[in-house]
Amino acid sequence: MQWEVLLRKHIYALGGAGLLLSVSMAAVFAQTEWTTPPDPPEFSAQSEPIFVSVSDIQEYKALPEYHEPDFVKAFVDAGELPPVAERLPKEPLVFKTGNMPDGVGVYGDTMRHVIGGRPDGWNYIGGAIQGWGGIDIGMYECLTRTGPLFQVEADELEPLPNLAKSWEWSEDGHELTMHLIEGAKWSDGEPFDADDVMFYWEDNVLDSNVAPTGGATPEGFGEGTTLEKIDAYTIKWTFKEVRPTQYLYAMAYGSFCPGPSHLLKPEHPKYNPDNTYEDYKNAFTPEFLNFPVMGAWVPVEYRPDDVIVLRRNPYYWKVDEAGNQLPYLNEVSYRLSTWSDRDVQTVAGTADFSNLEQPENFVESLRRSAEDSAPARLQFGARTIGYSLYPNLSGNGWGEPNELSQAIRDLNRNLDFRKAVTYALDRQSLGESLVKGPFTTPYPGGLYAGTSFYDKDSTAYFPHSMETAKDYLAKAGLEDTDGNGVVNFPEGVAGGQDVQVTMLVNADYTTDKSLAEGVQAQMEQLGIRVVLDTVSGNALAEYQQGGKFDWAVLRNGSDLVSVVQGTSGLAPVGPRTAFSHRAGTDGTLDLMPFEQEMVDTINQFIASSDNAERAELMKKYQQLYTQNLYGIGLTQYPGALLINKRFDNIPAGAPIFQFNWAEDNIIRERVFVPAEDQSNYELHPNTLPNTPGVGNGPISK
Ligand code: GLA
């Protein structure tokens, strides 16, 4: 079946088409060199959020009574667990029924995930990776929360309170006092308080030897920003800027999610001279079970290349309005397989959740999901998945390049060279090589078409032209002097050898590899040899952060979608904030003039609370980015959320990727399975973390 038929059939099955992505009028720059980008083909997002205020979603208050699943009550009755009211904070976070699509839920069942990543440990704040796909999102809670903001009215947009239940600004706007939830406990029953927050800030974010997994850096919170503890449940931020509400987004996933200081502090080199920073990062391997979390589920079983199982946290601090302690789901599991298998299994019904994000799987998934008997519902959102080619822009030693790589870096810093590359790219065919149909659209780079700060007239698009590309290559001083089809460096540079670029690629995704191979083939036509450095999962992060690449093909983060989240990642505002340009060996950033302008624009954006001014600043940013080819866009396309039909409370219009991934957007702790639809898929029914007989055993190291 053709995609047109499938899509129509599928939309019909869902009850009609929804919002069309907005399409602005074509306009042409005064300059002849570039144009505005082509309009994306029309594509209907299949469901729209119901827009609400933050206060419609949640509040903090004590309720007259609390409830828990019967099997948990049995642990209380046996004297193995304190009563539920004593396990909850003074004022739990209460999710309001009015914002729950199917209302108050019932306990039971499990959500079976499949992931392509692998865990290397639980110390998230110390730099360990859990394998992605929502494991860390379900384990670690953060001061604020942004995933559910896709449903919040634009003029009321502000991160949701989370571990910080409220905050107020001082009159001069330099100080922000935050109140933490009071009396909440880690999943092992130890108190959560400001000491956990201060340990995260002082010994992880501010300690440049630690690279927290979420990418937190001091600059992400503003230069010169300080944080202090006022008392056990009060902390105070002091900013150089006036009322920089922007940083509330940096306090969400993944840059301000404190870890259990009672376990981590004794492993940190500052407090444990026997430990190196590597020891600290690896202090809690995946085999260490029952790692204390503030999230809804606690790891209780790990089998390498097989599965990770997490059971409900008996100390979880969120409830519904009827006083039922959350989560409703007793368990979540993660099969350790591949990202593609996540789609296949969810479509087939042997798994429950997938972000359908690899276009190679779209047609088959649509075909199966359109059938009445399909186990999973599939809903496409907006075009928020995009890939770029990032030239490494450091000229002063980041990643310690050899002679050839240094010569490539010098080329990367030459605009004529970047223009040659962009003109040589045929984005239309790159997109079509992934999937035919209205899904992909050529992506110039920078902010995505269809997102709120995007302005087409500020976007420079270099249309495909191999001839122009070759002219620019010559202008950059490159010529094929030995007639082997690959251009050479000029005499005296890297021995006049062939221009050979090493391009970093994520080995875990089919899409990443397809795109990289497409780029490689198109560069070959231009006369540049691209060697793929295809690296898997956790090592990739190290290569990337370590600057060990000439070019990298990467899936972009949420900063380019939302702008307000991860804003400091949009330009090299600090020594360690940017993807493709970090400080060199001497600790300085050798910014080019346009990069300095980008940095200034981003800093002004962060300091401004004037919406009109912010919109203008983002236009300027987009011009600087796309005209100078800071990153070279490849393709942009929508993703679809695939969830087994037995789950309720899945919010309408939940995108797979906006402020965060869908694993956070759908608010998993509120998701439930109606009694009549419950499965028997729980792997460890009737068990709790920290109790004997669960998974590989009780707490161990
Ligand atoms: C990976 C997956 C995404 C999403 C995130 C969550 O990156 O590719 O779809 O599940 O993990 O962190």
Write down the Rg.
25 Å
| Structural class by secondary-structure content | alpha+beta
Looking at CATH, the homologous superfamily of the largest domain is Periplasmic binding protein-like II
Query: Whole-number average pLDDT?
Result: 93
Question: What kind of sheet is the major sheet?
Answer: 6 strands, mixed
Molecular structure report:
- With 701 residues, the protein is α+β, with helices and mostly antiparallel strands.
- The chain has 2 domains: 54-333 and 657-677, D-Maltodextrin-Binding Protein, domain 2 (3-Layer(aba) Sandwich), CATH 3.40.190; 386-637, Dipeptide-binding Protein, domain 3 (Roll).
- 26% of the residues lie in helices and 16% in strands.
- The strands form 6 sheets. Strands 17-21-16-20-18-19 form a 6-stranded mixed beta sheet, sandwiched between helices. A 4-stranded mixed beta sheet has the order 3-13-11-10. The chain has a 4-stranded antiparallel beta sheet with strand order 6-7-9-8, with helices on one face.
- The protein is globular.
- The chain starts with a helix and ends in a 36-residue tail after the last helix.
- It binds alpha-D-galactopyranose.
- The site of alpha-D-galactopyranose (GLA) has 8 residues, from loops.
- Alpha-D-galactopyranose binds at residues 132-134, 339, 355, 357, 661, 663.
Key features of this structure:
single chain, about 700 residues, six-stranded mixed beta sheet, globular, alpha+beta, D-Maltodextrin-Binding Protein, domain 2, about 25% helix, binds alpha-D-galactopyranose, disordered C terminus, about 15% strand, four-stranded mixed beta sheet, Dipeptide-binding Protein, domain 3
